[in-house]
Amino acid sequence: MGEIDVAFIQESEFRPKFRTTEVDEIPVINLSVSNPGDTEKIVSEIGSACEKWGFFQVINHGVSVELRRRIEKVAKEFFDQPLEQKKKVKRDELYPMGFYDSEHTKNVRDWKEVFDYLVVDPSFIPASADPDDKELRALTNQWPHYPPEFREVCQEYSREVEKLAFKLLELISLSLGLPADGLSGYFKDQISFCRFNYYPPCPAPHLALGVGRHKDGGALTVLAQDDVGGLEISRRSDGEWIPVKPIPDAFIINIGNCMQVWSNDKYWSAEHRVVVNSQKERFSLPFFFFPSHYAQIKPVDELINDQNPAKYKEFNWGKFFASRNRSDFKRQEIENIQIDHFKVTSQGSE
Ligand SMILES: O=C(O)CCC(=O)C(=O)O
Ligand SMILES: [Fe+2]
């Protein structure tokens, strides 16, 4: 054991450390509102978490636990099938949604299998990353026949989590001093999608990663994880990798690139990664809350002034998305596009 394909092996500086020391925890925020003043408290806790970490967990979030059990069950039933069955809904250049087992993050293969589906079917995105190409393409979902209730459960889950995502968007807008609906206009034709991540046990967890270090591109991510653990986030203050402790039925929320830009760097889109283990399989389910393809992303006018000028030039979300997603299909020689490419000065990343 311990032998894995070279495509999975991380450069030594990026390999996991498996520390056992106690570390700082990201904030856990209770979203239930029962007394006057609760919303204000929640808004302030969310604001601090977005600034300090770009990550927090939420409890009493309103998404039914029973639905969560149902989606976990269909996920397990789907991924437990032989590879040939799963490959019947394999994603490719024509159908970018569906099953995939060889994703690369920063050109190293991830130790995982995925299944992606759009929240809105069809969704429209630019046909290419070329800024002069105005053509659009329609993305549609592919659904497996087994387990039979897979599609229905997935659709019910994404509808519920979408409500939570809009709620969080409102709370985050308030925390920035904007009206509650200050950012919702960007999501009229959202291109959000849900992903199942399945991490099989790995014979060489010290060499590979379930997902290599990356930042999520959109506005925010609403992530359900099981009780195995493995997600680590890079602490804003010093870049130290901090594990995110599983809390039963909580959701992990993280700020994506768009929110960092809207907030003009007040809020932080943290780098994160997933370590795997040799004993247990792990499931996680992110909902990537993505604006409409035509959304132009720049620091929000109300948040900039002479003392705090815009730190980013405007960019088109659909083109940014199209450019990032090319790399899902093959190893690339160039690094993925990052928001730092749109920084006004050459301050570099923090
Ligand atoms: O599995 C996880 O906990 C996180 C996965 C992740 O970061 C992603 O899919 O973008
Ligand atoms: Fe991520």
Structural features, described:
The protein is an alpha+beta fold and 350 residues long. The chain contains 6 helices and 18 strands. Strand 4 and strand 5 form a beta hairpin. It is globular. The N and C termini lie far apart (39 Å). The structure holds 2-oxoglutaric acid and fe (ii) ion.
From the structure above, extract its key features.
350 residues, alpha+beta, four-stranded antiparallel beta sheet, 6 helices, 21% helix, 21% strand, globular, binds 2-oxoglutaric acid, binds fe (ii) ion, IPNS-like_sf, DIOX_N, IPNS-like_FE2OG_OXY
Brief synopsis:
This protein has about 350 residues and is of the alpha+beta class. It has 6 helices and 18 strands.
Q: What is the CA-atom radius of gyration, in angstroms?
A: 20 Å
**Lateral arrangement of strands in the main beta sheet:** 1-2-14-11-16-9-6-3
Q: What's the rounded overall pLDDT mean? A: 92
The distinct bound ligands, ions and cofactors come out as: 2-oxoglutaric acid, fe (ii) ion
How helical, in percent, are the residues?
Answer: 10-25%
Low-confidence region ranges: 327-334
Q: What is the tally of helical segments?
A: 6
How many beta-strand segments?
A: 18
Let me know the largest β-sheet: 8 strands, mixed
What global shape is seen? globular
How much of the sequence lies in strands comes to 15-25%
Structural class: alpha+beta
- End-to-end distance, in Å? 39 Å
Summarize the helix and strand pattern as letters.
Answer: EHEHHEEEEEEHEEEEEEHEEEEH
